[in-house]
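Backbone description:
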Amino acid sequence: MSASCCPPSPPSADPRVRRALWIALVVNAAMFVVEVAAGLSAGSVSLLADAVDFFGDAANYGVSLVVLAMATRVRARAAQLKAACMAAFGVFVLARAAWALQTGEVPEPVTMGVVALAALAANVGVALLLFRYRGGDANMRSVWICSRNDAIGNLAVGAAALGVFGTGTAWPDLAVAAFMAVLAITGAVTVFRQARAELRGAPPATPSHACH
């Protein structure tokens, strides 16, 4: 069979990548549930922001699993969709922080700190699992950026917990929430630009033919 008939599967179709993405999906879905409960209980905007981020990442990993072995154009379009989700997350967090600023609610710092540490352990594990794939196409790069941003965000939430504990105000929590929003938006821009470049360089879609 000629190599030109069925080109090699893209690197992200590697079974090891699929297994890594499944693990990342399960971890993120579980942490979403934990952080929603903790964020509501503690009244923390940064924890709720991180919970939404976990949910978005779980959805992103699911999308990545669907498009792993598809054409470059499909994977680039999926990356653009994920970039849009990352940007939407950033806008949501900024809006939620503005609302919390109006109410003046002060979060409970102990719950914030404990959950932030658990989330950090989960995200560092996922980031290490996906580290080797950080230089792949826009689809896999978006997965790596999400994991990296999450680990940075967890450190920031932990710092916010210390800040709330020390000052007795909500400002550290709100500042971290705003920081996480900016991180999500800048990450979305990075992924979208690479995906757009890949779309420009990809061959036009043609009818598929089965290989025999």
